[in-house]
C-alpha cells in the first residue's frame, strides 16, 4: 500500500485518481465488477480499482479539512475586509478570527468601532439558524455600552433587513439561547414581542453594511458555490 503524505494536496490527488472523470460511472462499474464475487474476488476487484486503506485515509483527511472551510472563509474574509474599512489613524484593539467561543466580545474592536462579520449567503428560505445568529450579533452590538460606532457587515442587506423587519417572534428567535433570552427579558421585560419591534427601536444604533462591494472576492466565491449546488440538484 502506498503511503499517504501529510499534505491535503496528496490526499486530493489520491481521491482524484480514484474518482476519474465521473464518480457515478466509477461507482456503477464497481457495483457490476463485484456482483457474484466471493470475499476474495471482491477484495481483488476492489484493489484493482484502487480501493485501499490509503484512499479511505485520504477521504477522511479531505472531509476533515472541508469541515473547517467556514473558518478559513471567516479568517480570510476578515483580513481582506479590514484594510478596506480602516480609517487613517484607526488602531485595532483586537480581532476574533476563529470560530466558536474565542473569549472576545466581537469580531473587531478598534479605538473607533466594534463590528461583527457575517460572511454567509442568504438563499431566501427559512434559514432559521442564520437568522438566530444574525439577531444575536445585532442585539449584542446594539446593547453594548460604548460610544464607539457599531457595525454589522453582511453579504447583501436585503435578506437580513427582511428578517429584522419581520414579525418573527422574539421568543422563537432566542429559544435555543437561554442566556440571551434571559438577558433580553431582564432588560426589556415584555416590551417587545417581534423582531421588527426591537429592530425599529435600535436600527439607528447599529449600522448594517453590505460587505459585497468591499470584498468582491467573497461574492465571486459564493456565486461559484451556489452554481455548483444548483447544478448538483439537476
Keywords:
single chain; 2 domains; alpha/beta; elongated; 10% strand; 11 helices; five-stranded mixed sheet; 234 residues
Explain how this protein is built.
The protein is of the alpha/beta class and about 230 residues long. The chain has two domains: about 10-65, no CATH class; about 70-230, no CATH class. The chain is about 55% helix and about 10% strand. A five-stranded mixed beta sheet has the order 1-2-3-4-5, with helices on one face. Mean pLDDT is about 85; it is low at about 225-234.
SSE diagram, text form:
Elements: H1 8-19, H2 23-34, H3 39-48, H4 53-66, H5 69-85, E1 92-95, E2 108-110, E3 113-118, H6 128-143, E4 149-154, H7 158-164, H8 170-173, H9 178-188, H10 195-202, E5 207-210, H11 216-233
Parallel strand pairs: 3-4, 4-5
Antiparallel strand pairs: 1-2, 2-3
Helix pairs in contact: 1-4
SSE order, one letter for each helix or strand? HHHHHEEEHEHHHHEH
Largest sheet: 5 strands, mixed
Q: Number of DSSP helices? A: 11
The gyration radius over C-alpha positions equals 24 Å
Tertiary shape? elongated
Strand order of the largest sheet: 1-2-3-4-5
Cα-to-Cα separation, first versus last residue: 38 Å
Helix content: 55-70%
What count of domains describes the coordinates? 2
Beta content: 5-15%
What is the mean predicted local confidence, pLDDT?
A: 87
In total, the number of strands is: 5
**Which segments are poorly predicted (pLDDT under 50) over 5 or more consecutive residues?**
224-234
Structural class given helices, strands, pairing?
A: alpha/beta
Amino acid at each position: 500500500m502506498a503511503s499517504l503524505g501529510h499534505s491535503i494536496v496528496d490526499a486530493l490527488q489520491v481521491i482524484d485518481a480514484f474518482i476519474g472523470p465521473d464518480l457515478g460511472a466509477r461507482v456503477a462499474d464497481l457495483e457490476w465488477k463485484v456482483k457474484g464475487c466471493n470475499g476474495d474476488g471482491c477484495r481483488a476487484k476492489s484493489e484493482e480499482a484502487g480501493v485501499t486503506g490509503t484512499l479511505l485515509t485520504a477521504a477522511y483527511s479531505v472531509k476533515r479539512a472541508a469541515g473547517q472551510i467556514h473558518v478559513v472563509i471567516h479568517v480570510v474574509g476578515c483580513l481582506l475586509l479590514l484594510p478596506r474599512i480602516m480609517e487613517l489613524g484607526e488602531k485595532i484593539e483586537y480581532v476574533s478570527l476563529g470560530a466558536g467561543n474565542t473569549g472576545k466580545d466581537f469580531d473587531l474592536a478598534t479605538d473607533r468601532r466594534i463590528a461583527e462579520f457575517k460572511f454567509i449567503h442568504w438563499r431566501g428560505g427559512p434559514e432559521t439558524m442564520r437568522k438566530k445568529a444574525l439577531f444575536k450579533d445585532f442585539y449584542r452590538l446594539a446593547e453594548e455600552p460604548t460610544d464607539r460606532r457599531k457595525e454589522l457587515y453582511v453579504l447583501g442587506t436585503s435578506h437580513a433587513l427582511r428578517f429584522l423587519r419581520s414579525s418573527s417572534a422574539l421568543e422563537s428567535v432566542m429559544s435555543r439561547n437561554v442566556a440571551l433570552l434571559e438577558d433580553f427579558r431582564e432588560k426589556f421585560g415584555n416590551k417587545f414581542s417581534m423582531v421588527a419591534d426591537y429592530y425599529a427601536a435600535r436600527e439607528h444604533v447599529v449600522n448594517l453594511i453590505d460587505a459585497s462591494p468591499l470584498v468582491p472576492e467573497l461574492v465571486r466565491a459564493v456565486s461559484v458555490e451556489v452554481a455548483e449546488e444548483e447544478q448538483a440538484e439537476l
